[in-house]
Amino acid sequence: MSNRKPFNDRAGYIASKINPLTNTSNVIYIASEQGIDSDKKYVTVCEAHHTMISSASIPLARIDMKDASKWCKDCQWVCEREEAIATRRWQ
Ligand SMILES: [Zn+2]
Predict the structure, then answer these.
(1) Residue 78 forms part of a structural domain
(2) What is the whole-number distance in angstroms between the Cα of residue 88 and the centre of ligand 1?
(3) How far, in Å, is the centroid of ligand 1 from the Cα of 90?
C-alpha cells in the first residue's frame, strides 16, 4: 500500500502521527472543513482503514491520534494479533 501521502495540505488539517499498527498516519481534522458530518468539532481519522472518531477538543483528539486501537476496529484487530504473536514467542 502506498498511502504515505502528506495530509497537511488537506482542508481542516490539524495534526498527524504515524500509526505504528498500519504505518499510515492518523490525522486530526476540523470536521466541518473536511466535509465530515460529526457531532463534535474535531475528528481523528485512521487513514489506513478510513475509520474515524469525533472529539470535542484538540487535546482529546491527540489522545485518539496516538492510539487508534482504542477506536478503530481494524487497528484493534491488528494490535490483538500482534500481541498474540508476541505472547506465543515467549512461551
Ligand atoms: Zn485503523
Answers:
(1) yes
(2) 24
(3) 27
Cα(54) to centroid(ligand 1), Å: 14
Reported as a single tens digit per residue, the pLDDT across 8-56 is 899 999 999 999 999 999 999 999 999 999 999 999 999 999 999 999 9
Q: pTM for the full model? A: 0.86
How many independent structural domains does the chain possess? 1
Phi/psi of residue 42, nearest 5 degrees: -115, 155
| Cβ contacts of 52 within 8 Å, gap of 6 or more | 36, 38, 43, 44, 45, 46
Ligand 1 centroid – CA 79 distance (Å): 10
pLDDT, tens only, 54-67? 999 999 999 999 99
Is 5 inside any structural domain? no
Domain extent for 45: 13-89
